[in-house]
## 1
Amino acid sequence: MLAVASSLVSCHKGASFTSTDKIKVVATTSMAADMARAIGGDQVEVISLMGPGVDPHYYKPTAGDVQRLSDADLIVYGGLHLEGRMTQVFERLSDKSFSIGDQVDESFLITKDGEHDPHIWHDPYIWSLAANPLAKRFASIRNDDDDAKFEDNGESTFEQLLNFAFEINQQIQKIPENSRVIVTAHDAFSYYGRRFGIEVVGIQGTNTTAEAGAQTLKSLADMIAKRKIKAIFVESSVPRSTVIALQEAVAARGWKVEIGGELFSDALGDPNTPEGTYAGMLRHNTKTIVEALK
Ligand SMILES: [Zn+2]
């Protein structure tokens, strides 16, 4: 009886993944989806729940999303409470959930008001720390010859991201040191700023669900006018109104600050554009920042 039972179990286990089955991955943000594709290659099928311009802090899963998450072999998400309204779903499906943020040692994380800043993808070095753990996770789902392939992908993604951090750093050097300030709608670029030596100021906090106070706007306008900062930036996933209000407040202080362009903060661009990939998004942001501030 026991032998039959165990052979049934192993048979079932073996049948759940053959080398032709793709691992079904549901990613929350487009950044998480990009990471899953880079590591999984042609062995995975990735769905991204949040498209271009979608704000993950606000995103509430639809009934269809919950179904897709339940049907997935693996859920890849940003974590660190980025997807604040999906916490319960992740807890319920914790057996097949992979939080990118949880792969990063706490000593690398930025803490604000007692909470970890979730915007880790803006530092390619920190983001790279999840590459090898995700490769291991894919390999554990499919226990066959493809393990090595996942490992190779994990290692090459890790190396690419490190080189990428170096490339961005070189671009940033073109900005005069006293002009290295990024003012944006919400506080998404602290990891970017820390890695590349740029001061970062968000009108709102790290979470877009918090209101921007009148006092914050006033002191920011004072700072920009006083330091004669050339440009401030709008974000693809946050309404422009607070940045426009800040621009007007600066004008009232006798300094003309430009809108330096649109940065991709919490979502990648359209899938059919260069900004639709992780690398393309960071290149776009860096180019926009350097052009506006140099
Ligand atoms: Zn954000």
## 2
Amino acid sequence: MRSSLSLGKLDSIFITHLHGDHYYGLPGLLSTKMMDKAFKPLSIYGPKGIARFIECSLDVSFEHLGYHLDIIEYQAEDIFVFNKFTVKVLPLVHSIESYAFYIKENDISNKLNEEKLRAAGLEPSRLYGELKKGRDIIFQGKKLESKIFMLEPILGRTLIIAGDNSDPGILGKYLYNLDLLAHECTYTQDIYDNLPVKILHTTAMDIGEIAEKNHIKNLIVNHISPRYGKNSKMSVEMILNEIKLTYKGRVFVANDFDVYTLGRDRIVKKRHERK
Ligand SMILES: [Zn+2]
Ligand SMILES: [Zn+2]
């Protein structure tokens, strides 16, 4: 609600895992969407248990949403197909089940080179459809080959948005050449090494090395421990600097509500905040 996104337009929510800091805001959001009179259906994707949580909180408050709510409990390796992209669910390593979402924009591979077709004397017509389907055609007695008139495919953008995870390498082949990885980075290495009890999170050193090794083009880290920040001797810059020791790509430390765009040029930019 405090972000620049519109509740009315919201139609899908993906939850990475069932630690409270990652989804306890859901019931409030669901009932606010109702008051907003935004009746667009909503789908929530989450690990096993998410349905019980939502149904229970709606049940005890006698909440009737007034819009269609779909709850989908996913499993590792599930693939969800959307209009312009697919989402694949990948398992992570954490103290409870935790997942990442590998999002792959569809390639655009059936675009015709209309300029070239016009130069060959062929104006837009039914024949364009045939060529697009990969069929060769006869035009004015001459055979025109489909593949000669197709543009190079435009490869879709790829990104991973990961939940809490202590082993970024588990994402394996999906990391290689990735356009954008959004991943947690809770500690710098020395702080982590001195924790009395180890918990399953990633350090700046780990994520920097993994991102560099896999030629990841852009990295956004979040889930920074509150011990780094304004009211502490340790600044968030320490996280950034440690990542930059190994990673030479573009890196951002995200704050809540930040908005980033991943352009077709594969460059991530931060959108400036609306105050
Ligand atoms: Zn967690
Ligand atoms: Zn967490």
